Amino acid sequence: MFCKIAAGQIPADVVRETGTTVAFRDINPQAPTHVLVIPKVHHPDAASLAAAEPGIAADLLREAGQVAGEEKLESYRIVFNTGSGAGQTVFHAHAHVMGGRGMQWPPG
Ligand code: 5GP
């Protein structure tokens, strides 16, 4: 499904796009700012992306930081849920960029 968002075939509230990544607002936000950053190429999770295409994994992290800056987040969290037991529901690598409220540690 995120492949279709990356290809522009499914609408999304896109906040940034580069040659290798797309950043868009989560449809079910868990924080005042909740943006997903995805690679345009398909890999099932972040570690798989980093192992196969480290340059694009770096692009993803750079874009997460750009999103946080544009959203004027002083503090924020970047989350990569990996595996269904950790809450991953979409098996196309994505970073959650979340901020705008206090963050608990450790997370649930
Ligand atoms: P995960 O649970 O895999 O870590 O994160 C998947 C995220 O994608 C969830 O936060 C969910 O709300 C979001 N999501 C699922 N489907 C869509 C969609 O079609 N559009 C957008 N913008 N977000 C989606």
Could you give the order of the helices and strands?
Answer: HEEEHHEE
CATH architecture: 2-Layer Sandwich
What is the overall pLDDT average?
A: 97
Q: Portion of residues in helices? A: 25-40%
* Radius of gyration based on Cα positions: 13 Å
- What share of the residues does DSSP label as strand, in percent? 15-25%
Distance between the termini: 26 Å
User: Any low-confidence stretches, pLDDT <50, length ≥5?
Assistant: none
Tally of separate domains? 1
Q: Looking at CATH, which topology would you report?
A: HIT family, subunit A
Specify the biggest β-sheet: 5 strands, antiparallel
Tally of extended strands? 5
Which ions and ligands are bound to the chains? guanosine-5'-monophosphate
Number of helices: 3
Task: Please name the fourth-level CATH homologous superfamily.
Answer: HIT-like
User: Within the largest sheet, what's the order of strands?
Assistant: 1-2-3-5-4
**What's the level 1 CATH class?**
Alpha Beta
How would you classify the helix and strand content by structural class?
A: alpha+beta
Q: What global shape is seen?
A: globular
Tell me about this structure:
- The chain is of the alpha+beta class.
- The protein has a single domain (2-99), classed as HIT-like (HIT family, subunit A, 2-Layer Sandwich), CATH 3.30.428.
- The protein is 27% helix and 23% strand.
- The protein is built from three helices and five strands.
- It has helices spanning 2-6, 46-52, 54-70; strands at residues 14-17, 21-25, 33-39, 76-79, 95-99.
- It has a five-stranded antiparallel sheet.
- Helix 2 crosses helix 3 (54-70).
- It starts with a helix and ends in a 9-residue tail after the last strand.
- The mean pLDDT is 97.
